[in-house]
Amino acid sequence: MSPRSVLFVCLGNICRSPVAEGVFKAALVQRFGASEAARWKVDSAGTSGYHTGEEPDPRSQASARLHGVDISMQRSRPFSAADFEDFDHILVMDSSNHVNVLALTEDPAARAKVALMLDASFPEQNKPVPDPYYGGEHGFEQVYQLLAQASEDWLDRWA
After folding, report:
1. Which CATH class is domain 5-158?
2. What is residue 45's predicted lDDT score, i.e. its pLDDT?
3. Which of 23, 52, 113, 139 is 20 to 30 Å from 14 by CA-CA measure?
4. Which of these is catalytic: 43, 57, 83, 131?
5. Alpha helices of 54-136 — where are they, by DSSP H?
6. Among 15, 16, 43, 94, the one annotated catalytic
């Protein structure tokens, strides 16, 4: 498999997209081994700059850590138009993120890189990854499980 680059995007880049980044990296290592996984560029960003420079939400870190995934070193950053050039795939967590990302380009090739994260698991359903920020621990675990399955489904699709 040739190297690819994937960017995960949510609103603040502290809950969903950091977990997606961490889960996807772990899936790459499990599926292909560390050396092949290292050939991939995987990152996350937010459509807002509210949390720029902050680490992921402690509840996201705790949920990921329960599954052996450490996301503590990640830092929030805003999505930028340059990301269209830097990544082959841009996977957004919900329709609001989708609209906000697409608003930054008119280029059809760039727009074609953008998809909802759960499209690989639930084709043509426009299903969002729910934002767990205002919920309890169960919401963070649900998000982890959705992202883990979607990561595997995207890798299957790209294989």
Report:
1. alpha beta
2. 98
3. 113
4. 131
5. 58-66, 83-86, 95-102, 108-111
6. 16
